[in-house]
Amino acid sequence: APAPHFLQARSRLLPLLVFSGTGYLGYDQYGRYQDRRLAELGIEAPPPLASDNQVALYRSIPTRLVSRAWGRLNRVELPAWLRKPVYRLYIWTFGVNMKEAEVEDLASYRNLGEFFRRPLKPHTRPVCPSSCVISPADGRVLHCGRVVNGELEQVKGVTYKLHDFLGPITWGSTPNTGGHDPSLPDPAAFEEQLLCSPGNQLYHCVVYLAPGDYHRFHSPADWTIEHRRHFPGPLLSVSPSVARRVRSLFCVNERVALAGRWQHGFFSLVAVGATNVGSIRIYCDQELQTNAPRYTTGSYNDRSYTSPLAASPSSPLAASPSSPLAASQEELPGIGLALRKGEPLGEFNLG
Amino acid sequence: STVVLLFEAPPDFSFSLRPGQPIRFGQPLGSL
After folding, report:
1. For residue A112, what is the DSSP state?
2. C-alpha distance from residue A1 to each of A5, A13, A302 (Å)
């Protein structure tokens, strides 16, 4: 008797999948072999950048919508019997160290979103007392070094422009809302504008937070935040494999840039969102809303922390009672928000 | 998610890190 129709279709599909899969693996292995050969010869292979069409195709995926749906799903309270298996699977998949978590009892986390932003036990992360700048988060260093000619590196060999990343320098003047900057200044001149002291240099460091990492971030130095700029945008993945292929990835994605000053001049911390981790919370800024449908991509929304309104106790910028900053934040009217090294600053959330 | 730090410092600032290195909150990034 002839085989059923679905079995016939499967038997035709299987060789096709096997051949295409084998072909892809062969092509991938050949690429790796070429890289090894070049490395043996002392030639550094350029990173295989995605073409404009590939990036456009990726950007056409409604990542913001997917991210918001993911966030909504992760705000649903899980039944008590389901919590431990779900969180254990997450712990096993991403290598979470629950011994460091302030609350080790898995059943007490109502949903995955709450579990994701879990705080750590006090003193689990000692803050280096001698260094003037510390890591603000747990993660992996993607790149660090000097800013050269107004360009930063997201990974070795893949650069992006400082101006595209931070937007025009308007802090210190009238705050701008929803602005676009038509002028594109000389990258090196833009870098010079940021520097406060002649002879100083601009440095940058990129820290990637993997899914299993502690997802809160802290003040990396003693500094004063003067300005916040929120760039709504798509939420592409920022995993190292994507960062190696998509140029200017950090200038595309939704992000929150905090700018201010420290003992040596300009200081900035930029939190960049991703598909799964689309929303960013800054504890001292209750007005900030990220990954919200009302914002259009390609614009930015500014907030000055130096205005008298920003520093008044009734201001929405004042730390909320639930904020980890409530007890320690130092408000300096007309100057900005003074933070000490290691103080809680914000967190990433699922969706 | 990613955190990017951008700061001004004297030219003798040096990072004590290398790309790919795991890092924890509170660890030093570099020194003057």
Report:
1. H
2. 12, 21, 72
How many other CB atoms are found less than 10 A from the CB of residue A107? 12
Tokens standing for residue A221: 């130095």
B11 contacts chain A (CB < 8 A): yes
CA distances from A288 to A131, A225, A251, A257 (A): 31, 15, 19, 12
Please tell me which of the candidates A196, A238, A264 has its beta carbon nearest to residue B2: A238
What residue type is assigned to position A153 of the chain?
E
Helix (H, G, I), strand (E, B) or coil at A166: helix
Q: What is the predicted pLDDT for the residue at A205?
A: 93
Give the span between the Cα atoms of A261 and A223, in whole angstroms.
6
**CB-based contact, B24 to chain A, within 8 Å:** yes
Out of B9, B19, B24, closest to residue A203 by CB:
B9
- Rounded Cα–Cα distance for residues A235 and A291 (Å): 9
Q: Do B3 and A250 touch (CB under 8 A)?
A: no
3-class secondary-structure state, position A9: helix
Is residue A159 within 8 Å of A247, Cβ to Cβ? yes
Q: Is A84 on the interface with B (CB under 8 A)?
A: no
Rounded Cα distance between A39 and A170, Å, is 45
Nearest-CB residue to A264 (from B2, B5, B8): B8
Residue-wise pLDDT tens digits, A29-78: 887 788 788 777 777 666 678 888 888 888 888 988 899 999 999 999 99
ipTM of the complex: 0.96
Contact predicate A256/A228, CB 8 Å: yes
Q: Is B12 on the interface with A (CB under 8 A)?
A: no
* A273 and B CB contact within 8 Å: yes
Q: How far apart are CA A138 and CA B26, in angstroms?
A: 9
